[in-house]
């Protein structure tokens, strides 16, 4: 073995410390010494290589020991005894809607099932995760025939439990010529066999599909067990004749309670809407004669209709000078969306109305819309209790007089309390039943507002005497020292007048909106387009996945292909987590 130590050459060493010339007889001795040093370097390198290999072996051995140590340490983890119910809740919390899984949720569910065998088993045995699907066509079933689609859907919903109410939303984003013409190239037809073969639908939505697809579902001779049904035609579909002969009756849809129609023209398209069980109806983008619409919504045709949502009725024609009135004693909840929809209120009378929600109806002083809305509110019955104006787009000077006209109102929902500066002169009969004002957005307050409120309610108290019920105004950020610093001492005056100021937060607003109990919020129609990506999906472990195409760091709603189009849910923004209450028999 070559020595790793080479002693300095006694004769040559002094010359390494300076620049003197080396004698010839000494230079001949330098070559052997250099060779000895080179051999020592090579020997050192060889030794180091062996040591490095040994070090790597020790590092690997250490890592393996640490992994074993960590693995055995987990045996003491309290999470091992965590109930399956908590794991199921954790899995559900990762999903945007555990009751209706879209593409992103299905990918997330697959990842949760990959944590370990126990998590996979818990997810597989959580039936609520397998009872709802939100599909976008043709992306989700690109290149698959009807039989394959039926098999995939059956495999998914089988985990939801036999006889359980199912939820399915199908949105057709195909805009090619053949789909617009309703020919066989339309992939949305692929889900029709499965829909018809399923015994019980809790909620079924066919959005932006063409007429033949909707016709195949609704005109099926065998009854379909569905409680909530949403149908919308492809935007700009003009061949309404293809929809002729469709009947929405209890014979074809015996359990139907909630119906939503978008881009569909009931009277002029030959559709018969006559149902004795229907409770909720949402009509979106109606085009036709006013008389036909009034006839369609009559109490004779829909005797149990409690909730009516009228949205964007842009083309109501009154060329015949219709003088008919839509008088419906069963309607308790009315939602009006869109400025042009307001015109229909001139022909409506609901003697038992309890809730009125106005969205996107902005008007100016002196406009005909203002006259129509105020006249309708003035006619509200004594049974009326809730006025929802937080999404009306009306400014404070318009809101104040409108609220005062609803003399029977008990609950008023607005964005801010600024409208209270415009409620006019107090009298003993003004807002006689008022119990609560809910301000849905961040606090607007000033000493002037508190001064006005204290004077207004004090005057009303002096005119009518002490009230049996106190009034509560819910405002954001109203807590701590805030009232003292901003109210100018008027808080105590308000309390003496029977008015309490209550702090609220975002969670409170969500609870208020749930209290509306408007069933139509489930439909969330998206009739003006939707997310159109080029992703194809594959079936893996019974969960659709497109990991190879999905950039997890990218918001799917911020892609270049997505545009902020109008959505049905935008005036509401409510969760659907409470929807199961409508599925109980």
From TrEMBL:
Keywords, in A-Z order: Coiled coil
Highest taxon above the source species: Eukaryota
List where this protein forms a coiled coil. 34-68
Q: Where is the F-box domain?
A: 83-135
Q: Name one Pfam family in it.
A: F-box-like
InterPro entries referenced in this protein's UniProt entry, alphabetically: F-box-like_dom_sf, F-box_dom, LRR_dom_sf
Q: Per its record, how is this protein called by name?
A: F-box domain-containing protein
Native source species: Coprinopsis marcescibilis (Agaric fungus)
What is this organism's lineage?
Eukaryota, Fungi, Dikarya, Basidiomycota, Agaricomycotina
């Amino acid at each position: 073995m070559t020595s790793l130590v080479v002693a300095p050459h006694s004769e040559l060493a002094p010359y390494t410390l300076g620049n003197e010339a080396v004698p010839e007889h000494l230079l001949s001795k330098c070559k052997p010494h250099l060779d000895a040093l080179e051999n020592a370097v090579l020997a050192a390198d060889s030794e180091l290589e062996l040591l490095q290999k040994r070090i790597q072996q020790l590092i690997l051995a250490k890592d393996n020991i640490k992994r074993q140590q960590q693995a055995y340490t987990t045996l003491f983890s309290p999470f091992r005894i965590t109930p399956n119910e908590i794991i199921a809740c954790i899995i559900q919390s990762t999903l945007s809607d555990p009751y209706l899984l879209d593409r992103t949720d299905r990918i997330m569910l697959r990842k949760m099932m990959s944590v370990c065998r126990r998590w996979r088993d818990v997810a597989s045995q959580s039936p609520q995760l397998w009872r709802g699907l939100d599909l976008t066509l043709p992306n989700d079933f690109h290149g698959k025939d009807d039989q394959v689609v039926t098999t995939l859907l059956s495999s998914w919903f089988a985990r939801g439990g036999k006889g359980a109410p199912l939820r399915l939303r199908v949105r057709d984003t195909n805009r090619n010529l053949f789909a617009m013409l309703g020919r066989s190239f339309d992939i949305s037809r692929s889900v029709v066999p499965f829909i018809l073969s399923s015994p019980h639908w809790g909620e079924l939505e066919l959005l932006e599909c063409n007429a033949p697809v909707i016709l195949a579902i609704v005109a099926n001779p065998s009854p379909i067990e569905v409680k909530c049904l949403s149908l919308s035609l492809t935007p700009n579909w003009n061949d309404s004749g293809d929809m002729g002969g469709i009947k929405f009756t209890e014979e074809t849809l015996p359990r139907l309670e909630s119906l939503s129609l978008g881009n569909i023209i009931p009277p002029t398209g030959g559709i018969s809407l006559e149902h004795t069980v229907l409770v909720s109806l949402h009509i979106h983008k109606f085009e036709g004669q006013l008389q036909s619409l009034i006839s369609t919504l009559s109490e004779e045709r829909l005797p149990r209709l409690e909730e009516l949502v009228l949205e964007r009725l842009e083309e109501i024609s009154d060329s015949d000078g219709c003088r008919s009135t839509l008088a419906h004693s069963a309607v308790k909840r009315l939602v009006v969306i869109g400025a042009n929809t307001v015109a229909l209120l001139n022909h409506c009378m609901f003697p038992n109305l309890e809730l009125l929600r106005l969205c996107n109806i902005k008007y100016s002083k002196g406009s005909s819309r203002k006259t129509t809305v105020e006249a309708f509110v003035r006619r509200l019955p004594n049974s009326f209790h809730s006025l929802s104006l937080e999404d009306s787009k009306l400014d404070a000077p318009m809101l104040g007089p409108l609220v005062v006209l609803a003399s029977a109102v008990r609950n008023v929902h607005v964005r801010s309390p600024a409208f209270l500066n415009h409620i006019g002169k107090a009298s003993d009969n003004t807002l006689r039943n008022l119990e609560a004002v809910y301000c849905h957005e961040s606090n607007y307050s000033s000493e002037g507002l508190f001064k006005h409120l204290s004077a207004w309610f004090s005057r009303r108290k002096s005119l009518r005497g002490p009230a049996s019920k106190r009034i509560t105004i819910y405002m954001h950020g109203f807590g701590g020292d805030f009232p003292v610093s901003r109210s100018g001492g008027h808080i105590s005056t308000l309390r003496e007048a029977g008015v309490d100021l209550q702090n609220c937060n975002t969670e409170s607003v969500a609870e208020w909106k749930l209290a509306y109990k408007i069933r139509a919020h489930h439909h969330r129609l998206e009739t003006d387009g939707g997310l159109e990506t080029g992703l194809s999906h594959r079936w893996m472990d019974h969960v659709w996945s497109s990991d190879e195409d999905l950039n997890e760091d990218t918001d799917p709603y911020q892609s270049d292909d997505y545009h902020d189009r109008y959505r049905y849910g935008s005036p509401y923004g409510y969760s659907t987590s409470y929807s199961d209450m409508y599925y109980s028999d």
